[in-house]
């Protein structure tokens, strides 16, 4: 559809009459003094001279039907406008002597008080007829190459607007959209608009949304809930009516949680994950309690395990919200190992962590999920003693909370030993960063978020297809291998 609309742009730019396409090199005649002509870069500047020295330019056209005449009838005012375009009027000049005048940026003027015009009058038959027509211009006419820059010949057609709007969903800016349009139309002159028009469209869309982006989001969610009862959303506003919290989960996300949501990674960097999304104005106990509360309400149960960073507010909220209240099974809270290990050089010094084998020896006991708790504790104590770190308070604190981040304490919980960090969330953040940028309105965020989710789900569909339509190479003759090939995805099968 976009391509078809773009191909119509040249037809939507108005009649060719009045521009350089109807100008010939012949000299216009007039009752005034002798006529002159000159050409500059393809622009024919044929003119006649009045007794007062004023030059007048009259376009010439081989087709007389392109020249307006009195009593000519048009079906609409728009068609009459497209038939004739000019530069009537003049620009106001700032008077610097007035102290209350705001200085404007320096620009060029395209208005020169040209008297050329066409006057149409409305009739009772829903028609417009030409009342009068002045053909003389007091300025040179546009060249063939300059036609594309005339404001009257520039228009952001429906096809261009659709292209720009669609490109914005995947974070493609105006410059690239304009260049892409040029390639589609085989030249800048065929686009029908300039780069400035592309940027103005983006500006106008932001102005249209203005401060209503929050309300527009809520109205959108209301419609989505009316069309799909499985769509869940909640929001909260401050006393002034400003949107402060927003949570939503669609039918696919809620179904995914029911199937795959035993272990959930939560990272507040982007406030998004694969099951649901939430936008918060603050990272406080109150805000997180609100968000997690609606998460449980939308999903109908607690995750078996939730893994987070060491955010103080989250550490308070998780035990209270993901508890056994209302008969639900309480979630187990685990801290991200990666965030903790990143603090080792900061808390213990770069020299110890990077110039000795301290970290290599410590990671043997930290990362392994194949050792039991007693073996971990003996190994931790031995490394601490070897490097004389018995008095380090931070290490002592990390040891006190070892049951919340060391894999050895999760080895009896199925699959929990594999879920050690919030790297999945961080990977999601990196993915979403390709679609979003600073300065996005809520409406822009929503559109780009939807594009990102569509891409993810399409990739999931592709991988499902590969799994369902192919058979992995087996190396054994055991039936258990065939069962595993049928049960697992291809990536998990080969990893297993």
Automatic annotation (TrEMBL):
<dbReference type="InterPro" id="IPR018289">
    <property type="entry name" value="MULE_transposase_dom"/>
</dbReference>
<feature type="domain" description="FAR1">
    <location>
        <begin position="81"/>
        <end position="142"/>
    </location>
</feature>
<dbReference type="Pfam" id="PF03101">
    <property type="entry name" value="FAR1"/>
</dbReference>
<dbReference type="Pfam" id="PF10551">
    <property type="entry name" value="MULE"/>
</dbReference>
<dbReference type="InterPro" id="IPR004330">
    <property type="entry name" value="FAR1_DNA_bnd_dom"/>
</dbReference>
<feature type="domain" description="MULE transposase">
    <location>
        <begin position="264"/>
        <end position="343"/>
    </location>
</feature>
<protein>
    <recommendedName>
        <fullName>Protein FAR1-RELATED SEQUENCE</fullName>
    </recommendedName>
</protein>
């Amino acid at each position: 559809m976009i391509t078809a609309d773009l191909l119509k742009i040249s037809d939507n730019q108005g009649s060719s009459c009045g521009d350089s396409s109807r100008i010939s090199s012949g000299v216009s005649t007039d009752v005034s003094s002798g006529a002159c002509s000159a050409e500059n870069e393809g622009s024919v500047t044929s003119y006649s001279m009045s007794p007062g020295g004023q030059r007048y330019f009259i376009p010439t056209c081989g087709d007389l039907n392109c020249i307006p005449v009195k009593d000519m009838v048009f079906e609409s005012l728009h068609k009459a406008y497209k038939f004739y375009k000019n530069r009537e009027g003049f620009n106001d000049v700032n008077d610097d002597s007035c102290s209350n005048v705001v200085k404007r940026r320096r620009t060029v003027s395209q208005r020169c008080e040209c008297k050329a015009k066409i006057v149409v009058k409305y009739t009772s038959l829903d028609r417009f007829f030409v009342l009068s027509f002045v053909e003389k211009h007091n300025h040179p006419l546009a060249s063939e190459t300059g036609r594309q820059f005339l404001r009257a010949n520039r228009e952001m057609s429906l096809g261009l607007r659709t292209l720009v709007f669609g490109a914005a969903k995947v974070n493609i800016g105006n410059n690239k959209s304009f260049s892409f349009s040029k390639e589609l139309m085989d030249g800048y002159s065929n686009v029908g608009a300039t780069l400035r028009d592309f940027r103005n469209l983006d500006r106008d869309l932001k102005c249209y949304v203005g401060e209503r982006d929050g309300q527009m989001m809520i109205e959108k969610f209301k419609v989505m809930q009316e069309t799909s009862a499985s769509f869940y959303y909640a929001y909260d506003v401050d006393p002034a009516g400003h949107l402060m919290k927003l949570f939503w989960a669609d039918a696919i996300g809620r179904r995914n949680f029911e199937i795959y949501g035993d272990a959930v990674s939560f990272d507040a960097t982007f406030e998004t994950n694969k099951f649901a999304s939430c936008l918060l104005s603050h990272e406080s106990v109150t805000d997180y309690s609100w968000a997690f509360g609606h998460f449980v309400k939308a999903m109908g149960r607690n995750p078996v395990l939730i893994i987070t960073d060491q955010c103080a507010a989250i550490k308070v909220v998780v035990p209270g919200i993901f508890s056994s209240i209302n008969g639900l099974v309480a979630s187990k809270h685990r801290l991200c190992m990666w965030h903790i290990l990143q603090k080792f050089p900061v808390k213990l010094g770069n020299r110890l962590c990077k110039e000795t084998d301290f970290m290599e020896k410590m990671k043997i006991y930290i990362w392994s999920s194949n050792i039991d708790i007693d073996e971990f504790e003996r190994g931790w104590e031995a490394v601490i003693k070897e490097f004389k770190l018995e008095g380090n308070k931070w290490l002592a604190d990390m040891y006190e909370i070892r049951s919340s981040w060391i894999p050895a304490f999760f080895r009896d919980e199925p699959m929990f030993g594999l879920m050690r960090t919030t790297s999945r969330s961080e990977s999601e953040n990196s993915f979403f960063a390709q679609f979003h940028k600073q300065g996005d309105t809520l409406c822009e965020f929503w559109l780009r978020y939807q594009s990102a989710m569509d891409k993810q789900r399409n990739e999931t569909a592709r991988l499902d297809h590969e799994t369902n339509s192919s058979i992995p190479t087996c190396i054994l003759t055991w039936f258990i291998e065939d069962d595993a090939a049928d049960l697992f995805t291809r990536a998990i099968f080969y990893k297993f």
